[in-house]
Amino acid sequence: MQPTPSQTIGPFYWGTIVKVYRADLAPPGVAGERLSVALVLHDAEGAIVPDGLFEIWQANSHGRYNHPEDRRNLPLDAGFEGYGRASTFTDGCSTFDTVKPGRVPWPAGGMQAPHINVSIFARGLLNRVATRLYFDGDPANAEDPVLKMVDPARRSTLIARKDAKGAWRLPIHLGGPNETVFFDV
C-alpha cells in the first residue's frame, strides 16, 4: 500500500467529530480538586480561531490514566476517563470541567508536574498539533522533565493562569511571535 498525504479536516468534520462532545470530564463522585480549563485558540496573526477543535487527555487526581497500559496500583475513579473534546466558539474558546491531575512518572525516572495533554485540530493544519497545559504556581513545575527541555523564554506558553472567574486559562497560538510550544507525538 502506498502512503497518502495528510489533508485538512473535512468534509465530515461537523457531522462526526463535533458530535462527540465531551467537555465535562468529572461527574459527581470523582475525587480531586475540581477546576475549569479554558483553552483559547489564536492563529499566527493573533486572531481568534472560531472553528477549531481541542482534545485533552489527562491522569486522574491520583496520577493514574484510565488506560490499559497504566497498571500502577493507584485508584481509578468510576466515570472519569480523562478524555475530553470540544470545539471553539466565536470567541475561540473551549472550556472543560475536570479535576486537577495528579503527578505521573517520567519514563526515564522522576515525576512529571500535574499537566493536561492538549491536541489541536484547525483549518489549515494537515496534522494535529500537540502541547501541554501546566498550572501556574505549582511547585512541581520546577522539576518537570518536559518543562526542563523547553527554552525558559518559551515555557510561559505552556503555563495556564487563573482568570477573574477562577478558570485556568491558556491561550494557544498556532504561530507568530507568541507561538505555543508544540511537541512531536
Ordered list of secondary-structure elements with their pairings:
Layout: H1 13-17, E1 34-42, E2 53-57, E3 83-87, E4 93-99, E5 115-121, E6 129-135, H2 145-149, E7 159-162, E8 168-173
Parallel strand pairs: 1-8, 6-7
Antiparallel strand pairs: 1-4, 2-3, 2-5, 5-6, 7-8
Which outline best applies?
globular
Number of helices: 2
Order of helices and strands: HEEEEEEHEE
What is the end-to-end distance? 23 Å
Could you name the CATH homologous superfamily? Aromatic compound dioxygenase
CATH class: Mainly Beta
> How would you write the strand order of the largest sheet?
3-2-5-6-7-8-1-4
**Mean pLDDT figure:** 91
User: Strand portion, in percent?
Assistant: 25-35%
Radius of gyration using CA atoms only: 17 Å
* CATH-derived architecture: Sandwich
Number of individual domains: 1
The major pleated sheet works out as: 8 strands, mixed
CATH topology: Protocatechuate 3,4-Dioxygenase, subunit A
Proportion in helices: under 10%
Number of strands: 8
Which structural category fits the helices and strands? mainly beta
Spans of at least 5 consecutive residues with low confidence: none
